[in-house]
Amino acid sequence: MGLNDTPNANRIHIGIFGKRNAGKSSIVNAITGQDLAVVSDVKGTTTDPVYKAMELLPLGPVMMIDTPGIDDEGELGALRVRKSRQVLNKTDIALLVIDAEIGKTKEDDDLLFVIREKEIPYLIIWNKADLATQAISSDTEIAVSARDLTNIEELKNRIGKLVTTDETKFRIIGDRLQPLDFAVLVVPIDKAAPKGRLILPQQQTIRDILEADATAIVVKEFELKDTLMTLGKKPKVVITDSQVFAKASADTPTDIYLTSFSILMARSKGVLKTAVKGACVLDKLEEGDTILISEGCTHHRQCDDIGTVKLPRWIKNYTGKNFDFQFTSGTEFPEDLNPYKLVVHCGGCTLNDREMKYRQKCAEDMRVPFTNYGILIAFMQGILKRSVAMFPEILMELEDEV
Fold first, then answer.
1. Which distant-in-sequence residues (6+ apart) come within 8 Å of 176 by Cβ?
2. String of b and e for 378-389 (b: at least 16 CB within 10 Å)?
3. Which one of 164, 286, 347, 370 is CB 3.0 to 4.6 Å from 363, fit for a cystine?
4. What gap in Å lies between CA 175 and CA 57, rounded to an integer?
């Protein structure tokens, strides 16, 4: 997989913030060496966060996010400011751009307070250094000029030192496999599957298995039983799409680990324990309670979409109760979760770790149980303990709850 093929969720997200006309877009263009962002003397040229995947050495694959001005005005401006602040939830490195001729303002200080509160590594960039009225000297500050590229190379070096890349950070299952282990992946091919390709969690899991020098064997759900009988070697694990969890469980001998792509996504995002606990709350919900079902990405929904159709149907069939289901997708995630009795999230394959943990933390702070699709499905089918057995640190802590 080349740098250009790196999934966006696995890229370091660099958010560029600041007031209108501070030079945010010019800084993006200077850092990348390309005219990626529209530059204008007119205030408010950037009206929505603009995302650009690129390589920035020594960090490697990154996602640059150019945001609207934090001082935008009016009703529409307030919405743009809110969108800028939402970007902080997925930001691994924050760059606060200040017009050196004007100096730091209340809006800059307010945003800086939030950045520090969220413990995001940051750098204050004093742009238009040639017009600066004061000397800049600090470990967290640097003076540059996007116009004549003064100090831009130093800026890139400073950004590169703000975080360290962890090669194990995005491990999905490879750390639980030995070289030459077999892992069988159950991948249904139906009308909801993308034509001509596998969905992202399946691609990422295959890649992680290969990184462990293990063998990935991909089958459709009705091929699993015969495949296991004819392999000649017992696989270490069967990984299934959550929608065929019951059939995969029935066809997989109990001495072979069984889990799902959704469970592995929760593990890789660091929310598995929380999500397992959250699933157990389903039995305690009351008639009419409100459940939020949230997708991390936006996609064309099929007539039997898992999030908006299948999950609500399965939940109703399992509990025998009627609930008020509400749905969100993409970057929209409610700031106030108090109206909900349960949050059911997708695997989050398109979200980076920081944003997924932010969403989980929002639920935790408001004491709203949080789980994900695959974990809840496994719970409803009575196979949740089995599906996390490969991770005894999770099973041990949750033995009394599941």
1. 236, 237, 390, 391
2. bbbbebbebbbb
3. 370
4. 27
Question: What is the three-class DSSP state of 318?
Answer: helix
Burial class of residue 335 (count of CB atoms within 10 Å of its CB; 0-12, 13-18, 19+): exposed
The conformational region for residue 82 under phi > 0 = left, psi -120 to 50 = alpha, else beta, is alpha
Q: Each residue of 131-143: pLDDT tens digit?
A: 665 556 678 889 8
Closest CA to 198 of 391, 7, 393: 7
- Assess contact for 126 and 27: CB atoms under 8 A: no
Residues 80/181, Cβ–Cβ less than 8 Å = no
What is the CA angle 119-165-359, rounded to 5?
Answer: 45
Half-sphere exposure of 276 (CA within 13 A, CB side): 28
CA distance 399 to 402: 6
* Rounded Cα gap, residues 368 and 253, in angstroms: 36
- Taking alpha carbons only, the member of 12, 72, 74 closest to residue 48 is 72
- Which pLDDT value is given to residue 168? 46
Delineate the domains of the chain, giving CATH numbers in brackets.
3-160 (3.40.50.300), 176-264 (3.40.50.11420), 269-398 (3.40.50.11410)
Distance CA 46, CA 20 (A): 9
**How far, in Å, are 46, 290, 378, 391 from residue 272 at the CA level?**
37, 23, 13, 10
Phi, psi of 260 (to 5 degrees): -130, 160
Give the helix/strand (H/E) hosting 329. none
Higher confidence at residue 200 or residue 174? 174
Instruction: Give the bridge partners for 248, in sequence order.
Output: none
Per the DSSP assignment, residues forming a β-bridge with 93 are 14
Q: Residue 164 corresponds to which tokens in the numbers above?
A: 């360290």
